[in-house]
Prior knowledge:
Blueprint: E1 3-9, H1 13-22, E2 28-35, H2 42-55, E3 63-64, H3 109-119, E4 124-128, H4 133-141, E5 149-155, H5 170-174, H6 176-183, E6 190-193, H7 195-198, E7 202-204, H8 205-213, H9 217-237, E8 244-246, H10 248-257, E9 262-271, E10 282-285, E11 296-302, H11 304-316
Parallel strand pairs: 1-2, 1-4, 2-3, 4-5, 5-6, 6-11
Antiparallel strand pairs: 7-8, 9-10, 9-11
This protein binds alpha-D-ribofuranose and calcium ion.
Amino acid sequence: MSRxxxxxxxxxxxxxxxxxVAALHPDLDLIGVTTVSGNVPVENTTDNTLRVLxxxxxxxxxxxxxxxxxxxxxxxxxxxxxxxxxxxxxxxISLPLPEARTAAQSTSAVEYLLETLRRTTExxxxxxxxxxxxxxxxxxIDPSIRDAVDDLxxxxxxxxxGNVTASAEFNVWADPEAANMVFSAGFPRLTLVTLxxxxxxxxxxxxxxxxxxxxxxxxxxxxxxxxxxxxxxxANHGARxxxxxxxxxxxxVAYLLxxxxxxxxxxxxxxxxxxxxxxxRTVFDMRPNAxxxxxxxxxxxxxxxxxxxxxxxxxxxxQRSLRVPGDLTG
Length: 330
Ligand code: RIB
Ligand code: CA
């Protein structure tokens, strides 16, 4: 039986790849997608999500627009600033995919999460790969919804170093109060896939050629989107990352299908919400005599080859397409 899953996304390039797996793998039943402001404003994360689902003929999956701002901050940047149109612009405001043919639902993401998690008679899986604004709001309105979730899988946090500041990973930094609330909300299981893990699952240009050679819409789209990430990482990080890129959010979906793709430690995690230099930093209590009760299974490693194998397996069976050269390059 396929696993009923909801994705919460701020679609950008890596969220798009996560959707391509979640919507197409037969072992997952993606019942809904909620969007949030993050990589780009929520109007664009919603539009980008619709573009991805339309492209693979999965417009049957409803998309619910979510929060436009972090829950406790106004005038906080909350979004990434890449210079538009440059090689370092990882996501662009709109993904380079054909325009969406379908529209988002009129129900908001928070209402959808509350209704669905209150009504369900079986536990669902929730994968959150953007700032945690929607999840924190829903769990604050009705804390009992946590019991309807068998695993809340979050892409967020970092131990060795951040990506938006030296201390902080983007999703946690963009709404640190929300992240703290979610980590302490008492979900039966919370799996946190950190940057430390996703930066081990680097995708190469050769992998992109393999995805494109599958000759499926998903394979072509993933090849283009990940190539764009590799261009941006090469421009932003130079030789240190050497013609590869992490595809953070896809690791979370891959973990549902192959749990051994990551290795985890059960730890107590909190988020710094006040430090002028460290706001958004995830603090993992790794002391042998740690005092807090563990609240997250934290992934610090991930297997790149296992990830690539799963992506190929997922996209190989899609509808085949003969591509017009350049049709996805925007
Ligand atoms: O730090 C990586 C995360 O930030 C990813 O989820 C990416 O899509 C952005 O939201
Ligand atoms: Ca994301």
